[in-house]
Amino acid sequence: MDMVRRLVADRPVVIFSRSTCYMSHSIKTLISSFGANPTVYELDQIPNGKQVEKALVQQLGCQPSVPAVFIGQEFVGGDKQVMSLQVKNELAPLLRQAGAIWI
Fold it and tell me: For the residues of 81-103, what is the DSSP string, one character each?
């Protein structure tokens, strides 16, 4: 879990993704549409991707493991949780509070 904490430290939005995952792509597109510039770690393209994925599953209970979204260094959840925040109009305020967007 320390590895994941280091990767999300001091970043307003972090998305753990797989380059081939359509839901990860959708979540990245949604968050970017607000003007946020998320830090994205493609677990299938980084050297320690399997270790990070294992930590996400074991420590945070991510099922499936991607997308895993952190906003303001807090674990928000996966695609369902992010979409739920969007439907309830809670995603933009969360991004604003984290300093990911200003408007």
Answer: HHHHHHHTT-HHHHHHHHTS---
